[in-house]
Amino acid sequence: MAKQFDTRAAVLDLMMEKVIADTYPSETMMDLIEMLATPEDIPAYAAVLMEKVRAETYPSASMLRRLVALGSS
Question: Is 30 left (phi over 0), alpha (psi -120 to 50) or beta?
Fold first, then answer.
């Protein structure tokens, strides 16, 4: 039997790649990730956001709020 294509996972991977590559990822991309992410996906997403925050002298308030929300869910 052929393996079924997981559209959710593919879109999530694509959005994660974009967030990693973009210096200032869009709110839309991060919203999509948060809509599509399963509990198993959250640690990888949080790690990406933490790396973005770590790399900036003045990280965006939106990104900081997202990290706080991920930590309290």
Answer: alpha
- Alpha carbon 4 to its chain centroid, in Å, reads 24
What 3-state class would DSSP assign to 60? coil
Give the contacts of 24 (CB within 8 A, at least 6 positions apart): 60
Rounded mean pLDDT of 9-22? 95
Residues 6+ apart with CB under 8 A from 29: 15, 18, 19, 22
Q: What is the pLDDT of residue 72?
A: 83
Is pTM beyond 0.85? Reply is yes
**Residue found under tokens 């990406």:** 48
The distance from CA 51 to its chain's CA centroid, rounded to whole angstroms, is 11
pLDDT at 35: 94
